[in-house]
Amino acid sequence: MAIERFLTGITTSGTPHLGNYVGSIRPAVRASLSQQVQSFYFLADYHALIKVDEPARIQRSTLEIAASWLATGLDPERVVFYRQSDVPEIPELTWFLTCVLGKGVLNRAHAYKAAVDKNNAAGNDPDAEVSAGLFMYPVLMGADILMFNAHKVPVGRDQVQHIEMARDMANSFNYRYGEHFVAPDAVIEDNVATLPGLDGRKMSKSYDNTIPLFATREQLQKLIASIVTDSRAPGEPKEVEGSALFQIYQAFASADETQGLRLAYAAGIAWGEAKNVVFERIDQEIAPMRAAYQSLISNPAKIEAILLAGAAKARAIATPFMGQLRHAVGLRNLCSEDGSSVAKASKAAKPVFKQYREKDGQFYFKLLSADNRLLLQSKGFTTPREAGQLISLLNQTGATALASQSEQLQLSAGVSERDIGEALEQLTGQ
Ligand code: TRP
Questions:
Q1: What pLDDT, on the 0 to 100 scale, is given for residue 243?
Q2: Does 57 lie in the same domain as 180?
Q3: Where are the beta strands (DSSP E) in 92-178?
Q4: Which residue puts its alpha carbon closest to atom 9 of ligand 1?
Q5: Is this model's pTM higher than 0.90 or not?
Q6: Distance 3 CA to ligand 1 centre (A)
Q7: 150 CB near ligand 1 (under 6 Å)
């Protein structure tokens, strides 16, 4: 079965809370453990600029969200885990997509329309306080997804329209320039209920009703104690419907445990006692990850290194793909052949990097020419990431990387540095 690519991002605009954990982080980490999928997870920091103009908050949020993902079990070796702004191909692709998407599609985007409706109702200019960034946001999101040709994008219901727009962009581009993009599908996590917050409304930064994912045990206890309940006394039966406390419990407890609390509600458990049950159950899941989180947060250099390594993996895909797209639209080396003949031939006649694993357990790659001759052979690496990083370096700096990396690479007999340089240029479309 072909491997499917899953991709999802979290905007770095605040401190991750239990709602983010239940709705997005936990299912994403679980999905990444499957062998059948290749996962891309990223910190959407370009997106954060739309909502947040406090630089320190964006930096802090990026650190906290990255640490949360890692502390909850995301293995950066198994997935491509990166920060959006480390991949400059994404804003470049945003422009390409901007030029194939109808403006009217963006006019109809829910978030933009809601802002306009609010302005109209208040008698303001329809676009008052609406940045062009807010208007363009679905295109940036489309570029996030199409850059890696993701098949599946797990999102909440509120994001489905954006995935449809990404399909639209993929199809418009493919129609004009040939098949380059996969049209993505949204995967709606319906079984993952939106978690209520302290006041019973959806847990969200904008309502200021959140429980931080990595609150201390003491803070967690205090916050859970402050969840709204009704005024029924101990001994009076209580209802699970509409109980925020019950819903939060359900997101952590097994079916049996949930049934247990349901019965306790009916039997008139005191609110204080119910809150304690909920607190202990959540803490049981979070406590083991808290230490890992603290140690990560206090070591930003480690997270920075993990993100840069992830960006190298991402760019090993994005850089050559962007080269292909630049060529497709006509942003080309003036000496390259023009016209449809190139477009037709280009798919078949391109050099390629091939990555593989040998019996010795090490990871290798080789560069083959367009006519399938071996040009370059790497030595063995202990991880696929190291191999990917070197490929990415070659893609970015061309033959100049050969001299500094000569210990890792072997040119085939009769192949010169210049041949390699030309092959890399063809590959990246420079
Ligand atoms: N817009 C998403 C949100 O607010 C975050 C996001 C940005 C995203 N780019 C993405 C999600 C690409 C999935 C795919 O939740």
A1: 96
A2: yes
A3: 152-155
A4: 141
A5: no
A6: 22
A7: no
